[in-house]
Amino acid sequence: FARPARPLGPYDTQEAVTSYQQATTYNNFYELGTDKADPARNAGSLKPRPWTVRIDGEVKKPQTVDIDTLQSWFPLEDRIYRMRCVEGWSMVMPWLGFPLAGLIRRLEPTSKAKYVQFTALLDPKQLPGQKGNVLDWPYVEGLRLDEALHPLAFMAVGLHGRVLPGQNGAPLRLVVPWKYGFKGIKSIVKITLTEKQPQTTWARAAPGEYGFYANVNPAVPHPRWSQATERRIGELGRRKTLPFNGYADEVAGLYKGMDLRKNF
Amino acid sequence: MSTGDARQSAATAKTPDRRSSRPRRKAAPLGWLVPAVTVGGLLPVAVLIWDASTGALGANPIQRATLQTGLLTLTLLVASLACTPLRLLTGWTWPARIRKALGLLAFGYGVLHFLIYLFDHGFSLGVMFEDVLNRPFVTVGFTALLLLVPLALTSGRNAVKRLGFQKWTRLHRLVYLSAGLGALHYFWGVKQDIVPPLLYAGVIAVLFALRLVRRGPTRQKASPA
To answer: Where is this region: Disordered (chain B) (predicted)?
Structure first.
C-alpha cells in the first residue's frame, strides 16, 4: 500500500490506502456494466474531454462551464477518505479535487436554494449500460444544501495522484465519505440548486432499500443484509462499520433531531 | 409449439426402426458418462481454487466465490431438473443416468456456498441465525439448501427400495421447491439487475410445467404398450 509523501490533512484517514489496481477494477458504475469488473473493461467508450457542466436552478448566474475552466477555479487538494459501499465493502481512496462548498459558494445560490441536485451524463454511446433499463437514466443524486456545504463533501477529478479514470467517474464526481458510495455520482454534467428534495435514482428504484440520506449506519440494516460489518477490500475478514463511516464527530450535528431509522 | 414438435419426434422414436437399435445401445452402456459428468462438474472447484490463489477472483474474492458457487448450485440444479423432461421429449435414456450426479453436485456446491457465507461471517452462528430469521433473502436460500439435504441422503438406489418408488418420487419433488426458492434467493440477492435471476426462474417454471403437462399423456401411452 502506497503512503502519500505529503503530511496528512485534518480530514485524511491514516488507514492503509486501497491500491490503484483494486480501486480501478472493482467498481459500481452501472452505466458501464453491472459486474464489478465491467466498468474498467468498458471505460474506453467514455470520453471525459471535451466536457461541460451545466449549472442552473436557484443560482444567481446559470451557466455552462468547461470542465477545465471549472477545475481552474480551485486549487486541487488531496483527500484520503474511507468509502463504504451499501453492499458491505469498503475502500480507502486518495482523491484529488476540491471541496464542494467552494463551488456552491461561487455559484451564489439564491435564498430559495435548499438542495443540490447532480445529474450524470446521458449518452448510451459513451455509457453503453444506458442501453438497458437497469435504472432510470440519467443517474441523479442530491444533497441537502448544508450537507453540500460541509467541508468533507468533495468533488473529485483525480485518484492516486492521477487523472480520474473513467470507471471511477471521470471527469468529475461527487465524494461524500459519510454516506454510502452510491451517493457519489459519477461523470457529472449538471448541477442544479433546487428548492425541493431531488428525486434520486436509487431511492426511486427501490424506496424501501435506499433512502435520500443514505448515511452509513450500522444500526439500520438493509432489508436484505446487515450493515453492521464490512469487508475492507484487500482484507479477508470483516470489520465493524462505524456510524457515519467514522465521520460522526464531523457530521452527526447535521442530523440532530432527525430519526435516522426513518430517514435512512 | 416446440412441445408439439418434440412429441412428434418422441413418437418417431418409437417406430420399429429405432427400437431395433436399442439393444445395441445397451451393449455400449456409456460407462464413461457419469464419471465424466462428475469430473466436469467438479472442475469449477479447481478453477475457483486456482483463481483464488492467483488473485483472479478480483478485489473482493469472497464475494466473487459466494456468487460463483451460488450460480453453480442453481445451474446444476436446473440441469438435474432438465434430465427427465429431456428424456421424455427426446426418448434418449442417458439424461436419466446423469440426473443423480447432477443433483449431488448441485447439493455439494450449495454446501460450499453456505460454507463460504459462514467463513465470510467468521463462522458466527449468531450472525447466521440473525440473518436466517430476519432477512427473507437469507431465509429462502437457507431453506432451499435444507430441502436438498433429505434428497441427497436418499439419492442412492437403496433409498428408492427402502422408501418405495412412489414415496421416493414424492419426496424428490421437493427439488422443484428448492430450485424455486433458490431462484428467489438469487432474485432478492441482486441489487437491480434482475434479468439473470428471472431467466433461471423462467427455466425452472418451464421445466416444472413440462412435467405437469407430460405426466398425463405419458401414462396413457404407457398402458397400451
So the answer is: 1-26
